[in-house]
Amino acid sequence: MNHQDFSSPQSGSCTQHVLGAMSPTEFMAKHWQRKPAVIRGAVADAQAIMSRQDLFALAEQPDVESRVIVGQGEQWVMRSGPFKRRSLPPIARSNWTMLVQGVEALNSRAYALMQQFRFLPDARLDDVMVSWASDGGGVGPHFDSYDVFLLQLHGSRRWQIGRQSDLSLKPNMPVKILADFKPEQTVLLEPGDMLYLPPNWAHDGVAVGANCMTLSVGFKAPARAGLAGEVLLRMSEMYEDQRLYTDKGAQPTSEPGEMPPALLAFAQDAVARLLKEPKALACALGEVMTEPKPNVYFEAADTAWDGVCALHLSPKSRMLYDNHHVFINGDSFKASGLDKKLIKKLTNSKSLTTADIQALGDDARGLVSEWYEAGWLYIKAV
């Protein structure tokens, strides 16, 4: 069967709330997209989340996004994985770092930690990246266009941060390095400490000593133009108006290269009609926001589900809902009544109990079975 262990990280893992003494309400009011926050002792057992050996093993996998960055000052080199251990610089060599993306889908403790950030909508949560650095290692002064939490797992890292009005970058660099970084504050993070940075805050993290590991939780911040394009494309695929453009009564033209004004009006009307369908727009948005990343692959279940056993949402799956639809991995479905209530529970709690499954209608249970077969759901390993 499709058995995994992501629903049951070992005891003692990430049980404390990551905001420390702050409540989510206080954090959102004082810091979210406003100003940085340093949270000392955010995760008491941060070192247990992941080791260097764990990270390097992930970087060997061809379907895992990984990078090695070597350099400082004006000299930087970046290589993309996968990486065999013998292809990496020596551990004792200074000024290099390894970064691995999508770790929440590959490591149960990282996945458990990410759940603690669900005081924010799942539509905003993106992924977990983990980096290892030798002494002096980092990726240079830069900025992110999204919010980020930076949790120190092992060793120490010195962060210099600042509000940066000049976001211009050094030319001809393999990594994005700020041309004129002006730090305003320095923060040293030890294991368990965490730094929150709003979008566009410049930062430069440098490993202090050997075996520095940092975990970052990043957030989705769709660009308006890109989101509009993706949503309109999805909506156009749903649009069933097959009316053709006609120009009956048109007069002969002496300028055949000119765009006919009537055709422009026809296109404007078509787009306007699309936007008059709020449910279609909401449906398209849900499909776009749950579309898996290009490097995410699901393994189909090798045996059939018995229709009774409890199921859990795969860490790779993206699932959301609105008042009319359920969205999972780029697809949309309609549900109502008790089925809708239970599917919403799956989205929020990431699991369905045996009792939940037995309460589902035949159609909804068949849908859940299809999701299991596709690898979108799994059975907890015993």
Describe the structure.
- The chain is α+β, with helices and mostly antiparallel strands and 382 residues long.
- It folds into 2 domains: 24-219, Jelly Rolls; 280-381, 3-Layer(aba) Sandwich (Malonyl-Coenzyme A Acyl Carrier Protein, domain 2), CATH 3.40.366.30.
- Helices cover 25% and strands 25% of the residues.
- The protein contains 9 helices and 16 strands.
- It has helices at 24-30, 52-59, 108-115, 224-238, 261-275, 278-289, 337-349, 354-359, 362-373, and strands spanning 3-4, 37-39, 66-72, 75-80, 96-100, 125-133, 148-163, 185-189, 194-197, 201-219, 311-313, 319-321, 326-328, 331-333, 351-352, 377-380.
- The strands form 3 sheets. Strands 2, 3, 4, 5, 6, 7, 8, 9 and 10 form a 9-stranded antiparallel sheet that branches. A 4-stranded mixed sheet has the order 1-16-11-15.
- The radius of gyration is 24 Å and the shape is globular.
Based on the coordinates given, report the CATH architecture of the largest domain: Sandwich
Summarize the amount of helix as a percent range: 25-40%
Annotation field: number of helices: 9
Which class best fits the helix and strand makeup? alpha+beta
CATH superfamily caption of the largest domain = Cupin
Largest sheet: 9 strands, antiparallel
Number of domains: 2
Overall 3D form: globular
Q: For the residues shown, what is the average pLDDT?
A: 93
The total of beta strands comes to 16
What is the name of the CATH topology of the largest domain?
Jelly Rolls
Low-confidence stretches: 7-15
- Describe the oligomeric state of these chains in a short phrase: single chain
For the terminal residues, how far apart are their CA atoms?
12 Å
